[in-house]
Amino acid sequence: MKIGLFIPCLVYPEVGVATYKLLKHLGLDVDYPLDQTCCGQPMANAGFEKQAIPLAEKFEDKFKGYDYVVAPSVSCTAFVKLNYPRLLKGHHECTTSNKIMDVVEFLHDVVKVEKRLGTFPHKVSLHNSCHGVRELGLSSPSEENIPKFNKIKDLLELVDGIQVVEPERSDECCGFGGMFSIEETAISAQMGKDKVERHIQTGAEYVTGPDCSCLMHMAGVAKKQGLNIEFKHVVNILAAGL
Question: Which strands, in side-by-side order, build the sheet including 163-165?
Fold first, then answer.
């Protein structure tokens, strides 16, 4: 099983390093293809889909030799998975749509990790990003009458010393939404304030989740309000102390 690691634009460098470190720790054959670029999501979301096609073609060529493409970003993973077949139709063979996975999904469903991972002796509030919940199935959507599950929480429970909690309205949007945060700034900011407040009400020291963009948005809200809570990508916690 050969894995190509994709590190999207909005992923903090330390998250990319932690993802690579964690995959190697689990004994996986992982490679980081050089010269990889944006997947094209910002252009497409802004209404300029034609500008995303060359990036999608480059992405396909860069990752065509791997069994899986793994990324620590639910939004970019979902974009490739759901939009590449349509964008590339008539332009380029689409292969990565069927083999790209968010790192949480990959570790939970493919690797099926069961051994203990890192050490993180803190109380952590779990943030469920919209793309992860409703497009990648990382957790159960509250609007659907199905048994509750959460793949992020399952993995976090393999970390020593951690206490995982969830806020009220656990899968409600934080307000980032990519272009939404630019076009509807006031609404985005208020949604962020509401979400951060619910995380703080859990008594957690940290908020974690699978997407840097959501964490970045909430961290900005917390900083502006002078709130004492930190934000850390789930991979940084899974790899802590390894």
Answer: 163-165, 123-126, 206-209, 230-233
Residues 57 and 236: their CA atoms lie apart, in Å, by 31
Element (H, E) at 47: none
**Residue 182 pLDDT > 80:** no
DSSP for 51-95, written as a single string? HHHHHHHHHHHHHTT-SEEEES-HHHHHHHHHHHHHHHTTTS---
| Radius of gyration (C-alpha) of the chain in whole angstroms | 18
How far is 197 from 185, CA to CA, in rounded Å? 18
Nearest to 171 by CA among 146, 16, 155, 236: 146
Average pLDDT over residues 179-186: 80
To 10 degrees, the CA torsion angle through 79, 84, 87, 93? 170
Distance, CA of 200 to CA of 203 (rounded, Å): 6
- Per-residue exposure over 106-132, b if at least 16 CB sit within 10 Å of its own CB, e if not: bbbeebebeeebbebebebbbbbbbbb
Secondary structure of residue 155 in the 3-state scheme:
helix
Q: Can you tell me the mean pLDDT for 24-36?
A: 96
